[in-house]
Design goal:
heterodimer, A: 711 residues, Rossmann fold, Dna Ligase, domain 1, 7-stranded mixed sheet, 7-stranded antiparallel sheet, flat, B: 79 residues, mainly alpha, 0% strand, globular
Chain lengths: 711, 79
């Protein structure tokens, strides 16, 4: 049996390039969704045949109507259903009978309205499965294809965008209309424009695969409200990028959430859905955007200009202040200010007045006209040390704005290097900006806004040249014993593994767990501490206590038998007082590691992406500092190093201000092993190793505490 | 009241509200899918049925009735 995903891929061709379209449930009332969709298809210049299907009308806009879709005598490639939700199933059933395989269901009133809507949506998918139909929607704005061979506007959008190389996919229909308006004002064109609504059948996955092979699309933008299958999205994105080298930009809403705060572990609390999304997108080569403006800022950089070879930027400005601001933003974005060659310096000297600054940022001075801009841009673009240019203009009385815009467009196309612009202001520069936009020169209102797109395009270019397109394969096979311990705990009804039980699992995975003894009375604790060697740490063992520090269940720096006996007494009394009724199983005695640095490792299971691993600066304040990094498991050693080096405090590990570097290799090894455990044992809901004490370089690390929640 | 009588009167009301010929209305006709009623006409139909049969219907439940046969059954419960 053919998989649904393959059927959808095939049927998507007729959604974008139908030779005939039936609008099912339309009417002749303008200003209504059923009426406007028919008119939009008709008026946009659709290259195929259109059939209105309406129970009551005899004709609409001079086109003969049919009462039912099955009455149409010819073959129909695509049906657009605009009936109210209560009768969509009847319409879809008839589409099936008619042999139509591609459908767009515009109608709302399904999953988004509650349980009754969920049932209605299920009925649609059942009918679609029965007839081999693929459908977009329900609850969507529709589909637009600007390709001149199709010119399909099967949507109720207000306008039809110009042809371009950007494909825009959105779960939100309302956002689509706003984006179309925004893009129209900036002369941004689209190849395909899809609102896929409730994605009851065709989802972003099939659409991404389709766009991978679409010759009209060079950049894919995606607005998502929910991710149904995160792993599948990652896999798809990697494949699309690998095979097509098309960047995928995602704007994912729901950046804040309360769910994470209810988690039982540090990792659970720190690994919110948003952090997990960030990690997953990064691993899949997806570019995540914070807002629509940023998304289009980056998209136009991708489609209008070549990729920079390296990250060395020349800034050309007619005003000092904006030049300095842009310089700051350039450096902050991780780009470099290009150092001009002697030849360039001479050329600039020759063509600019003596008052001009011929070093980077180049100040062509406030009275610069088009010839001066042209000469400076040209000289800089010829320089081998320059990978791209930021052109800044402030409108002054002498500034011939439109001429400069034309000159920028003329010169920039000659050297195969990217040129971005910022004509600052609004009214005076409006015509100049239009000229730039019509000539495919990316324009940004603020000069600082040029930096992130440049950096993103540069990074993506590097990413595709590195050809690292696969999700990491598990490097270790988790010890059978570890799996058995977890399964045994689950069989006995346990959901929380205390430090001893969690440590046993970690030990079985060859993770470096600290050696510990267990005292069940004050009398024996002294000798156990002496055997371990002072100083020791003592910690409570109880299934009823997760955060031991908070209830006085941990005492550090114990240096004698007497102190150990007192500590035993203090710990048990404090726990009894703070957690009345808790069952105390004993007190651990562990030799205290000296001069170590505390880090945290963790696992969290995410319903969409599966197991996630976390690394960060540890200790009891981990939630306050939130200096952590995440990756979807499994991870390899190089990814583990990335995780370690990307936290803000990484310098503390590499040796800051005269301190000795820590054993980073041993942390990376622990992360990789932990990620294998996470992959092999999806029953682990949350796991904290906090702290993992990292010793000096070459001396390893030690797990001092751990806890695990399983399900 | 006999079912046939209810059906006859329902069809008469539907024909009047939707401005169609009574003969075009099949027993199993769906108000929207077959007869082309829009949301406003669906509300008008409910009001017209109430007037025709001198009853007061549960509007939420009445909105779920989609066919002539369904309306016959629904209205019969009020008579």
């Amino acid at each position: 049996m053919k998989k649904r995903i393959d059927i959808n891929k095939k049927n998507l061709q007729n959604i974008f390039y139908p030779k005939s379209v039936a609008v099912v449930g339309t009417n002749k009332v303008r200003g209504t969704v059923p009426g406007d969709i028919f008119i939009n298809i008709l008026q946009t210049g659709f290259q195929g045949v259109i059939y209105p299907v309406s129970p009551r009308e005899k004709s609409i806009s001079g086109v003969k109507t049919y009462k039912y879709v099955i009455d149409i005598p010819d073959e129909v490639d695509l049906a657009v259903i605009v009936f109210p939700s209560s009768v969509c199933k009847l319409a879809l059933e008839q589409c099936g009978q008619k042999g139509i395989k591609s459908v767009i269901i515009i109608s709302a009133g399904f999953r988004e309205v509650g349980i009754k809507g969920v049932e209605k949506e299920k009925e649609l998918t059942e009918i679609a499965n029965r007839y081999g139909i693929s459908f977009i929607g329900p609850n969507c704005l529709g589909v637009i294809n600007t390709d001149p061979v199709s010119m399909l506007n099967a949507s109720f959008a207000r306008g039809f965008p110009v042809e371009g190389s950007i494909a825009f996919l959105s779960q939100s229909g309302a956002l689509c209309t706003a984006v179309l308006d925004y893009a129209q004002a900036k002369n941004i064109g689209f190849s395909k424009f899809v609102s896929f609504g409730n994605k009851a059948d065709i989802s972003e996955i099939e659409l991404l695969y389709y766009l991978m092979d679409d010759p009209k699309t060079r950049v894919i933008l995606l607005y998502l409200e929910e991710i149904t299958d995160g792993r599948e999205l990652m896999k798809t994105a990697l494949e699309v990028i690998e095979k097509s080298h098309k960047p995928i930009l995602i704007l994912k809403s729901g950046r804040t959430e309360e769910g994470a705060s209810a988690a039982a572990s540090h990792t659970g609390s720190l690994a919110g859905k948003d952090e997990i999304c960030d990690a997953a997108f990064r691993q899949a080569g997806i570019i995540r955007c914070d807002n629509i403006e940023e998304m289009f800022n980056i998209a136009i950089a991708f489609v209008y200009q070549p990729y920079p070879k390296l990250n060395r930027v020349a800034i050309i400005t007619n005003a000092g202040g904006p030049g300095v601001l842009t310089t700051d933003a350039t450096i902050k974005a991780g780009l470099e200010l290009a150092k001009f060659s002697e030849k360039t310096t001479l050329a600039l000297k020759k063509s600019l007045p003596t008052t001009a600054n011929i070093n980077n940022p180049v100040d062509v001075i406030g009275d610069a006209r088009a010839d001066r801009y042209g000469a400076a841009i040209s000289a800089a673009l010829k320089d081998e040390n320059v990978d791209g240019i930021f052109v800044i203009l402030t409108p002054q009385s002498i500034t011939d704005i439109e001429s400069i815009a034309h000159e920028v467009a003329r010169v920039s196309g000659q050297f195969g290097k990217p040129v971005y612009t910022s004509f600052m202001g609004q009214a005076d520069v409006a015509e100049g900006i239009k000229i730039l936009e019509h000539n495919d020169i990316p324009h940004y209102i603020l000069p600082e806004s040029m930096c992130k797109p440049f950096r993103t395009v540069y990074d993506f270019g590097q990413y595709i040249s590195e050809k690292k397109y696969s999700l990491t394969v598990n490097e270790y096979i988790t010890n059978k014993r570890a799996k058995e311990l977890i399964e045994k705990a689950l069989r006995s009804g346990k959901k929380y593994l205390n430090e001893l039980e969690a440590s046993a699992v970690l030990e079985a995975c060859q993770l470096p767990v600290a050696k510990r003894e267990i005292a069940i009375s004050a009398e024996e604790v002294g000798s156990l501490a002496e055997e371990a060697g002072f100083p020791v740490v003592m910690k409570i063992i109880s299934d009823d206590i997760i955060h031991k520090f908070d209830v006085g269940g941990v005492i550090l720096n114990i240096n004698s038998v007497e102190e150990a006996e007192k500590a035993y007494h203090d710990i048990t009394e404090s726990v009894k007082k703070k957690v009345p009724g808790s069952k105390i199983q004993g007190v651990q005695v562990i030799r205290q590691v000296q001069n170590g640095m505390e880090v945290i490792l963790g696992i969290k299971s995410d319903p969409s992406f599966g197991s996630v691993v976390m690394f960060g600066i540890g200790g009891i304040f981990v939630e306050i500092f939130r200096d952590v990094s995440f990756r979807i498991a499994p991870v390899d050693e190089s990814t583990a190093f990335e995780m370690i080096m990307e936290i803000k405090s990484a310098g503390l590990l590499t040796g800051a201000r005269g301190t000795k570097p820590r054993d980073i290799d041993s942390i990376a090894e622990a992360i990789v092993k932990l990620s294998s455990l996470a992959t092999d044992c999806p029953q682990i809901k949350e796991l904290d190793i906090n702290p993992l004490i990292v010793l000096e370089e070459g001396s390893g690390c030690v797990i001092a505490d751990a806890k695990m929640i399983i399900e | 009241m006999e079912t046939e009588e209810i059906k006859k009167r329902i069809k008469k009301v539907v024909a009047k509200v939707l401005k169609i010929d009574e003969s075009e209305i099949a027993d199993d006709a769906n108000f929207i899918f077959d007869l082309g009623a829009d949301s406003m006409q669906s509300m008008l139909l409910i009001a017209a049925f109430e007037e025709e049969f001198d009853i007061e219907m549960d509007v939420e439940k009445a909105q779920e009735v989609q066919t002539i046969e369904g309306a016959v059954e629904f209205i019969a419960d009020y008579l």
